[in-house]
Amino acid sequence: MEAVLNNIQITLLGWFYALKNQLEEKHHDVVENKWIIWVVVLIAVIGGIGYAYYCTSKGYSFSGQVRWNWPRVWDIGIGCTPN
Questions:
Q1: What is the DSSP string of 57-68?
Q2: Where does the chain cross the membrane (predicted)?
Q3: Which domain holds residue 67?
Q4: Residue 33 DSSP one-character state
Q5: This model's pTM is above 0.90
Q6: Number of domains present in the structure of the chain
């Protein structure tokens, strides 16, 4: 009985490894390019911190709230308000 379970386990593990390898090969480019997302996030965070510093250095207060004035897109504000 133990030998039968062992053969079933080996067969299942072989099937799972084959499926894993197939998925890794199919989505290889997606897995390899995850660093691009982290670079974009890092640039956005550094940009937000830089904008907050710029806003406060000019004497304004920074709240971080986004104000969308649609359809007047040139009047979008990102939390830089006068004191």
A1: HTTEEEEEEEE-
A2: 35-54
A3: 2-82
A4: T
A5: no
A6: 1
